[in-house]
Amino acid sequence: MPAEYFQPPEATLSKPEAYGELASQLAGLMDGETDLIANAANMAAVIYHGLPDLNWAGFYLMRDGGLVLGPFQGKPACIRIPVGKGVCGTAAATGVSQVVADVHEFPGHIACDAASRSELVVPIKVGGRVIGVLDLDSPVVGRFDDEDRVGCEALVRVLVDHIK
């Protein structure tokens, strides 16, 4: 699917329906492309423009034993995050998605944007190894829930299926 045909999901859709639509559009955008950076860049844009109440959507990729800023949409961000530190580092260290209703209550939260109040981080695994994380931030406390986690894990599977 050519990028110019991207349409954010209708506001009347349920969260599972909206994530299904985003997954379908992502698969179309990534069709025939296997480059991680190119696909992550489009995915960050699709998520940022396709989901409500976000102030940041992007990736941190594993480089030299730590997480390094990758493609994103939003304000400039922290460049490096140690594995095990903050929400992103915790997801990378544990291999488990993190849903944080209020980042001020997460021990060791790394504040790249003071406006962020809630966060969802999904590890990206290839062959059982974490190669990075998808990170979503919102200025709204409690923005993310289990439906968002499931939906974003499905989006990450689309990405993994389209990289070499």
From TrEMBL:
Domain of life of the source: Bacteria
Keywords: Kinase, Transferase
Listed Gene3D superfamilies: 3.30.450.40
Record's GO cellular component terms: cytosol
Coiled coil (residue ranges): none
GO molecular function, a single term: kinase activity
Domain GAF, residue spans: 55-149
Residue stretches spanning the membrane: none
One Pfam family in the UniProt entry: GAF_2
Record-linked PROSITE patterns: UPF0067
Family: Belongs to the free Met sulfoxide reductase family.
Protein name: Histidine kinase
